[in-house]
Design a protein that fits this description.
The protein has seven helices and eight strands, in the order βαβαβαβαβαβαββα. The chain is α/β, with parallel strands linked by helices. It folds into two domains: about 5-120, Rossmann fold (3-Layer(aba) Sandwich); about 125-175, no CATH class. A five-stranded parallel sheet has the order 2-1-3-4-5, with helices on both faces. The protein has a three-stranded antiparallel sheet with strand order 6-7-8. Strand 7 and strand 8 form a beta hairpin. The two termini are about 25 Å apart. Pfam families: Response_reg. This is Response regulatory domain-containing protein. It comes from marine metagenome. Keywords: Phosphoprotein.
């Protein structure tokens, strides 16, 4: 992925520093703020490729900041990705309803954080085939009983939607991965 101009906003300095370090080590230019109003002002003036927002900011709601950025004409091309410790489906749904382009869960590791960010920004779909190995996906007595030539196919979208098709004998490998 090309070098991006990113903007990170988080009210907790240690968390913000960790995000900045991970993003800079991946070769990106990173600006930052610790408050919502400062982040909004600087996003409008600097127009980064993407702003990474924590849901819980000290002085304003991260969802409100997202809505203001998405509604501002100068920021029409700025992508918004939430980085949060909140695993709740409602928070994720509300973020996407406000116009977010991605939602990344903490804790962050260098591999997963940059990979998830790239997938959100590129709006990629991840396609996996589970249990497909050789002529019989899952050979053995159980495959004869349950139909051994059926694989499990999964699609995961950048916005978090997850679909499973024909959950055949490969469903075991998928469940192990989840």
């Amino acid at each position: 992925m090309k070098k991006l101009r990113l903007f990170a906003v988080n009210g907790v300095q240690e968390t913000l520093s960790r995000e900045i370090d991970l993003l800079q080590s991946a070769g990106h230019n990173v600006s930052h703020a610790r408050s919502g109003p400062e982040a909004l002002e600087r996003t409008i003036s600097e127009k980064p490729d993407c702003i990474l927002i924590d849901l819980m900011l000290p002085d304003m709601d991260g969802l409100g900041l997202c809505r203001q950025i998405k509604n501002h004409p100068a920021c029409k091309d700025v992508k918004v990705v939430f980085v949060s410790s909140k695993p709740y489906a409602l928070d994720r749904k509300r973020a996407f309803d406000m116009g977010a382009d991605g939602y990344i869960m903490r804790p962050l590791t260098p591999e997963s954080f940059i990979g998830e960010l790239n997938r959100a920004l590129e709006d990629k779909i991840e396609l996996n085939f589970w249990g497909v190995r050789g002529t019989l996906p899952v050979p053995g007595p159980d495959s004869l009983k349950y139909g051994g030539n059926t694989s499990c196919v999964s699609l995961e979208f950048a916005r978090g939607q997850f679909f499973v098709f024909d959950a055949g004998t490969g469903i075991k490998q998928l469940s192990d991965q989840l």
